[in-house]
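Researcher: Next entry in the queue.
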Amino acid sequence: MPHTPDDGPGAAEAAPHVSIVLPCYNEQDHVVKEVERICAAMDASDHTYELLAIDDASTDDTLARLREVEPLFDHLHVVAFPHNGGAGTVRRIGTQRARGEIVVWTDADMTYPNERIPEFVDLLAAQPHIDQVVGARAQEAGSHRFLRVPAKWLIRKVAERLTNTRIPDLNSGLRAFRREVSLPYLRLLPPGFSCVTTITLAFLSNQHPVQYVPIDYAKRSGTSKFHFVRDAYRYILQVLRMVMYFNPLKVLMPIALWLLGIGAAKFVFDQVRTPLYIPNNTIMLLTSGLIVGALALLADLIVRSRDGA
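Model: Structure for this entry, 309 residues:
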């Protein structure tokens, strides 16, 4: 429901406590309902807020619907992109423009329980040592479900292994975090869906505590923008990229040790079978292991030098 302000004339210029970034792309049939749901929940809370509804160059009437209702909601600010930049670009620019101490990311497709946004903000307020609260979905929904579930499970397990952290939901779109903590990592966000994976791994890799809250995940309204093969490939690359960025030894050193171990075992076998003869493939294994190990140490040195600069 629209909110009627009862604050003084200077209240509109005061920085809100919470900034909600809502990417909108071809959501004309339900975007107004989503705005109403978010504003109703926040109006019922004790938090001051702004809702940044960012239209990512929609090809339907999403922007027109947002412009139509913008005057009805005091805390709604509509931003229009001239060309499509992707969900990651929207979230990055929205976070940079945000004025609140707490930034909330969510989607406009009616899948996430956005009425629980105040609960996420309350958790951050009550726990100063927590830097991010993520909604962990109880089930997977959407298109290609039977392919997405095992693929995302595998990617999540790789991320858990590389970060030494249990991650109930690696790519949930509903989360609240401290804006100041996120600013150094915004430049790392890719333009697509894997931006949520990136911000999770960035926080975990730098020892910023992340709390997970179980949530329900509804069937989306409208058409999914998720492309299984392309986006799953990007998820895998982004997980490896982020761990390489923060802790390259986790990725490269196991490979180097395996190559050296196999090469050493084969060298012993070769000497037992044919003394004083070293086959080319044995030399390649040992050399490859040494090269990858050297790259791992060099990458780790670069990371430590960067962090200490």
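Model: The chain has ten helices and seven strands.
Researcher: Noted, moving on.
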